[in-house]
Amino acid sequence: MAKKSKKPRSATPTKKSFTLKLSKKNKVILGGLLMLLGIALFFSFLSFYFTWQDDQSVLSEFANRNEQAQNLLNKFGANVGHLIVYQGFGISSIILTFLLFISGLHLFFSISKKGLLRKWIWGLVFIIWFSIAFGFFAKSTPLLGGMVGYELNDFLQDYGGKVGVFLMLLFGLIVILVRLFQFSPDSAVSYINKKGKSLASELKSNSSTKKAPTAIKIKEEKEEEIITPKEEEGPIIIDAYTHKKDIPPLPKEEGDDSFQVNVGTEEDTISMEVEKIKEETEETDNIADRLVDDFGEFDPTLELGNYKFPTLDLLDPHGVTGGITINQEELEENKNKIVETLKNYKIGIAQIKATIGPTVTLYEIVPDAGVRISKIKNLEDDIALSLAALGIRIIAPIPGKGTIGIEVPNKNATIVSMRSVIASSKFQKAEMQLPIAFGKTISNETFVVDLAKMPHLLMAGATGQGKSVGLNAVLTSLLYKKHPAEVKFVLIDPKKVELTLFNKIERHYLAKLPDSEEAIITDNAKVINTLNSLCIEMDNRYELLKVAMVRNIKEYNAKFKARKLNPNDGHMFLPYIVLVIDEFADLIMTAGKEVETPIARLAQLARAIGIHLIIATQRPSVNVITGIIKANFPARIAFRVTSKIDSRTILDTQGADQLIGRGDMLFTQGNEVTRIQCAFVDTPEVAKITDFIGSQRAYPDAHLLPEYVGNDESGTSIDYNVSERDSKFREAAEVIVIAQQGSASLIQRKLKLGYNRAGRIIDQLEAAGIVGQFEGSKARQVLVQDMAALDQLLGDEAQ
Ligand SMILES: Nc1ncnc2c1ncn2[C@@H]1O[C@H](COP(=O)(O)OP(=O)(O)OP(=O)(O)O)[C@@H](O)[C@H]1O
Fold first, then answer.
1. Closest atom of ligand 1 relative to the 495 alpha carbon
2. Both 120 and 196 in a single domain?
3. From CA 31, how far away is CA 135, in angstroms rounded?
4. What is the predicted pLDDT for the residue at 290?
5. Of 423, 493, 568, 583, which residue is most buried, by most CB within 10 angstroms?
6. Residue 570 among known ligand-binding residues
7. Taking every annotated instance into account, which residue ranges of this chain make up the domain FtsK (predicted)?
8. 623 with 519, same domain?
9. In this structure, which residue's CA is closest to atom 28 in ligand 1?
């Protein structure tokens, strides 16, 4: 086992160093060079044996062009032969030429280098063993063992004597036989036995056909030697059996455990089957290795290989060139106000520190010893009033710091431009799957998070507080960092105006339903189909992950890139899918459960397969952000909201009501709440970016989502053939008629069906005139009053 686990480890680094350093062309060149060098050395070594005496005088005359050597490779051959054969390993040096040739062959034809190291090790072992052996047995002809063989012999004999060296050589031979040729004493014995037996039987059969009586006699003598005297009585009969063939003794041997087991184990140790299995697994590895060797790793970006990422100059610095300008007077004034206000409430301050952010400055206070934090907390409103400024937020205490924070808005807020956050090295160097630069924190640090880790994001804020800018910041971040092959957006924009600019990059970055014309979905009824289609995509992706035996999209794509998944088996590189819904409240109002169910499903399950949801809403009330939605959106952003209740609904804490708007936001991914100034990206900037991308070569179409046959949103009745009805059609009709409620989710629940199937059945029920047309969030009208009417209707149909 230990040996097995070592193997790949030793193989991987050598393989990597080859693949990393050499391109395919260089491999061919180097391979050719090694092969030719091997051939050259082979001939020079060989001819060295015939010419070395003549060439002795030339050795010191290498630079002299007038001197010529007899060696096939002239002076080069004479010198190399002298160095490696004479002064080196003698005749076994020829093995070296083979090793060079084989290495060249591996490189030239890009054959996997797995066995190469082994060949080199054994080759070198052979060279040394033969060199010593020749040095030992043919001391008088030093050219056979070379100087190394001669000197090593001398050295070893000084310590171990002739007998010692002989035994060492013997041991070396045993090691070679056992390790390299899988030799074992058992196999030797059985081999000899088999040979002996077959030889004997051949002899017997030959002679019996000619002279039967003598053969019997010979057998008799043998039996007497081996078999016990009991059988002496009828030796001829026994002989007649044993004589026929050697098979009859076999049943006897079956009883004889030791012999049987011996034979079995011998064949197992040869283990042809085991070796075959190994070869099979290695072969699949080799194919992937070879594919990677030949073509490199799969590059999903290759189809749009010339794609250029948007440049930084498309973004506007918004007049901000340097950092934040600090107004010393303002700082001093605020500090004095804070100290005074707290003094009025008899709270002494031991220490105060200011951190200046783009929109707010954080004053960190360490109160005098003995002051209760709860006292300061209770005074929150009074302090805010005394400071007479909008948007004051008191954090008592600052988690993990033990100080009290008072955030006071700056008189002149600095705009955080998208350009500055995109250009920040934090974002540029971010090794994330879906990096998003939201803006800057209160300490003026660029705030970068990975959407893939969130894994879904809920955004809320009153109208005009910066939600749409925030969504644009998210999309822009991804556009600047991810290739069209790596991420796709599904954009839902009920307001119809916010995301329209992204239409220009439809064939690069957007995903849509196969039959829809517009990639950006503005029609609420179409949203349901899209969401359900995403659910199908999710199920399909899980199936692919299952087959590939990986746990998430990252591992899957890595495996696919390493060419370990065959595209012929349906595998493909999976882009991340980011679903953006700009006005969720509107959607919930019109479609209700039909939207909530697939969203909840996606939110619960889609993280591993790379579908991430970003949901924005103006109205963060509990009937929009329901418990099930909230539970699955741990990452939340709150822009300014109008009430403490709304703040609680989004963040589970107050604070969002005290923000100052214009991109001032709170972000939480669990417990900690971070105040961030959202990066500002204006519509003309987005237009420039989408123009820049849109003008480049694109895919033939937007990324197509799986087809979803759902409710017919236009309300036109569908003509379903009676014979094509679902097998559960009758049952579903009964459920609907009994409950007098025409909804797909009811069928889903009662009959335990998937959403898609239930949707299809509803369509069939509509076609059959059992339920009415689709009416948005309301359940469909049931047109059949009771079971009797249903029986009659279906009975009529059958006739
Ligand atoms: N990060 C920001 N920095 C500076 N100003 C901002 C920022 N975000 C938004 N604003 C200002 O606020 C205005 C409204 O922003 P935005 O359109 O994003 O609001 P909204 O929340 O989407 O509103 P609605 O819900 O009505 O669409 C912008 O036009 C801009 O002037």
1. 27
2. no
3. 34
4. 62
5. 583
6. no
7. 444-648
8. yes
9. 466
Residue 77 assigned ligand-binding role: no
Distance 685 CA to ligand 1 centre (A): 14
ipTM of the complex: 0.96
The CA angle 130-133-138, to the nearest 5 degrees, is 115
Average pLDDT, rounded, for the chain: 79
179 and 58 within one domain: yes
Which of 152, 168, 183 is the last residue in one of the domains? 183
Q: What is the rounded CA–CA span in Å between residue 141 and residue 257?
A: 54
Q: Does one domain contain both 600 and 748?
A: no
Question: Binding residue per annotation — 468?
Answer: yes
What is the phi/psi pair of residue 438, to 5°? -80, -35
Average the pLDDT over each of 370-384, 571-585, 626-640 and give the range with the smallest value. 370-384
Supply the residue whose CA is at minimum distance from atom 5 of ligand 1: 662
From the CA of 471, give the closest atom in ligand 1.
Answer: 18
Here the CATH number for the domain that contains residue 742 is 1.10.10.10
Residue 463 annotated as part of some ligand binding site: yes
For a pocket test of ligand 1, which of 468, 675, 683 has the largest count of ligand atoms closer than 8 A to its C-beta? 468
The pLDDT of 746-768, averaged and rounded, is 84
Contact residues of ligand 1, CB 6 A cut-off: 415, 461, 463-469, 618, 662-663, 678, 680
User: Are residues 588 and 493 part of one domain?
Assistant: yes
Q: Determine whether the annotation assigns residue 350 to a binding site.
A: no
- Does the residue 311 lie in any domain? no
Q: Are residues 609 and 726 in the same domain?
A: no
Contacts for 782 with CB less than 8 Å, ≥ 6 apart:
736, 737, 740, 741, 742, 770, 771, 772
The domain boundary, picked from 124, 151, 183, lies at 183
Measured CA to CA, the distance from residue 424 to residue 404 in angstroms comes to: 30
Task: Name the domain count of the chain.
Answer: 5
Determine whether 319 is exposed, middle or buried from the number of CB atoms within 10 Å of its CB (0-12, 13-18, 19+): exposed
Q: How far is the CA of 469 from the centre of ligand 1 (A)?
A: 5
Please indicate, yes or no, if residue 487 is contained in any of the structural domains. yes
* Pair (102, 212) in one structural domain: no
Confirm whether 716 is domain-assigned: no
Calculate helix-pair angle for 524-548, 553-561, nearest 10 degrees: 60
582 and 460 assigned to the same domain: yes
In the chain, the amino acid numbered 1 is: M
Best mutation site among 315, 422, 469 for ligand 1 pocket (most ligand atoms within 8 Å of CB): 469
Please give the residue that has the higher pLDDT: either 721 or 158: 158
Residue bearing the CA closest to ligand 1, atom 25: 463
Sort strands 404-409 and 664-668 into parallel, antiparallel or unpaired: unpaired
Residue 78 lies in a domain: yes
| Residue 465 assigned as binding residue | yes
Q: In the 8-state DSSP scheme, what is residue 494?
A: T
Nearest to 116 by CA among 130, 129, 105: 105
pLDDT at 690 over 80: yes
* 260/720 Cα distance (integer angstroms): 72
What is the arrangement of strands in the sheet containing 457-460, beginning at the earlier edge strand?
Answer: 446-450, 435-441, 673-678, 664-668, 635-638, 457-460, 611-617, 576-581, 487-492
pLDDT at 234: 37
